[in-house]
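We treat protein structure as text, and this decision shapes the records that our systems exchange. This encoding replaces a full spatial description with a residue-level series of whole-number codes. Below, we set out a record of this kind in full and without editing:
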Amino acid sequence: MSIPSDINPLNTSEKKPIEKTKPLLTVSSEVVTSLTSQTETLFGFGSWQWIVETEQMVWSDGLMHLFGYGPETFGSNYKDLSFFTEHLHPLDKERAISYLVEVKQLSAWIPLEVRILTFDGKQKWISIKGQISHIYSTPTWICLIEDITSQVTSRQQEEKVVKRLRQQEKLFQCVEHNFHYGSLEWDLDTNEVVWSEGMMSLMGYTPETFGNNPCTPDLYLSHLPAEDVQKTTAMIDHYKTTQNFIPFEQRVITRDGKEKILAGEWSISSEERKVICLLHDITQEKQKDIQIEQQAWALENIFRNTPTSMCVLKVVYDEEKQISDLVYVYVSQTLQEQTRLAESELIGKSMLQLFPEVKNSHFWLAYQRVLITKESERFEDFYEFDGYQNWLEGQVAYLDDHHLLSSFTIINDLKQIQQALEHQSDLFESVINNSPVCIVLYRAIRDASGQIIDFVHELSNPANSLITGKTEEELIGKSWLTHYPENRVNGFFDLFVSVVETGRTERKTFLYDAHGIKGWFDGNIVKQGDGILFTYQDITALTQQQQQIEQTNLELTRSNTELENFAYVASHDLQEPLRKVKSFSSLLVKEYSTLLEGNGQLYIQRMQMAVERMQTLINDLLEYSRVGRLEEGYQQVNLNELITKVWMPLKEEKENTGKLIEFTIDELPEIHSIPSQINQLFANLLGNAVKFSKPDEPLTIQIRRMPLTEEDRGNLRFVEQTEYIKIVVEDNGIGFEPEHKERIFGLFQRLHGRSEYEGSGIGLAICKRIVENHKGFMYADSEPGKGAQFIVLLPA
């Protein structure tokens, strides 16, 4: 392409001279034009002349080729500025136009790099460099446009590589920081080690506090526990010699004194004789492993030692996703013991095969519900299937959709206790509701200062309702003084307060006449928590009976006293007439017996015998009446000495008749008693044993001390004394019928005629009266021909 001669600055055919210029060479314009075009094409650039005033550009052939045009497609070399801007890349167009607008106002061109779209659709990068020229009458920019596509592409690739490297470095640093990694680059030749920032961070450093980098392996060794240094040094030496790098785990002590566990792996660097060690902080993982091991150990311990039957079950589902079976995964020792199945017989086995009836128990329902709700369930069930009969406390817990934790404890004993407690509770309620004793529980009401100002009903039984005329609903939760205001002034309120504050139980018999309640009552007031348990009985009828009994006893006592006085006086006064009868009958026999004929003397003898019997009766009656008179005080009496003195005369008298006698006596204690009466007691008992002995057998008498029986304690239940001794007088005499064992203690009661055995029939009555006078009890036991036992219970 040739430039028109009218504007081409190189056109030498122009006749019009150019001021202040001289041609450097004398060459034709065609040659110059051709040389310029070839040079532009060869070096891939072009040029234009931009006449600022007219906005016209003159394009060179090289520039035309650069934009993808040929001579046929380009047309005239004269183009408007818009022709150029139409070829600008859309992303660069606005920037380039703004740049050209600015250039008009500048006297210097700043190089511009933009993208263009060529005529044949290619994208190129061009560089525009220009210089303003004044060789024409109007300012003109002479611009050199160079194709820099290859340079820009190379530069962009380099920038991408650099960017990628920076991203990778940043990513590596991020990975090191966030995932607790670090790395060391070790030069085996120089023995220098380069620490990454992640490695510095792992060991407690910052780039500012680290110091020289690279450093020697000694820095790393200084962070090892003392016991690990030698081993690690040998490992480093081994690596340097053999280059056989293997993974390792190692404890380190960081700059701030923390202990960590690092896992290291080696890799060969791309640079010769360099290796990279990547270290990862696995402290938490190790701690988790330890925790997992500890938890596993604890779980195994729990399963081995728990008193609960426990198991982990794997859920088996059917095609409809419903539970169809359970398989044992883990079982406790207790479960093995209670099912009597070994671990090998349970693990991996079907529950329904081992215990088919479990489907009919509460456990199966719990398994189904827990899998749906994912919430634990606790329950009680009486399992009476598969040969077992036990009350169980069961629990099922959700682990995941395929596993359940199931446990149970046999609670037969607890259930029995619970049932017993329920029975006791029912019994207690029945006792309270059916008790004839009135039972009321009160809770104290206190003011702000803690003083008791009232009581409230907390419990009332039907018996109390009968007395008060108020139902349980009317009383429970209601004020005591509201119902019974009189209790504040009659002393009951103060008594209740005293019991609560002191804890002292009070027993009170009282006459109550207020609030429609009238009668005698016997009550017990006991502290119960911060309140009172009040139990009482209506003893109005009993009190009236007691008063009647007391009046009767008073009259009876007076009558007995008068009778005793009469018996004593009568017995004493009758002695004189009897003595005279006996005396005169004796004189009659002595002085007039020769004058008496026929039955006269016989009659007198019978009269004397009758007088003697009468004297004996009077003496015995007098002795009986004396027992009730306290003519002698109580003393300490040695029973062994007393009984021995009583026995000796009886023994001598009987032995004089040739009778063989065996007499034994236990060691007896001293007792507080009336000596003369105790003497009379044993004289009568021993006398009877001698009197009623068998004539053809030796006489055996035993006096023994025996422990009290329940029957004995029952006989003494109304006696105030607490300590008693039991003395048994036993012989081998003729005995008597058992039905007479009460009768023999009556006045003038004889089991034999006077012709067989002498006596008045008062002796045993006197014995019983003596024992009762000492607040004791006496009874007898015998069989005919087997002797007799007389049992005496006396206060110690």
Summary: The chain has 26 helices and 28 strands. Residues 1-29 have pLDDT under 50 and may be disordered. Residues 176 and 198 are 5 Å apart (CA to CA). The radius of gyration is 68 Å.
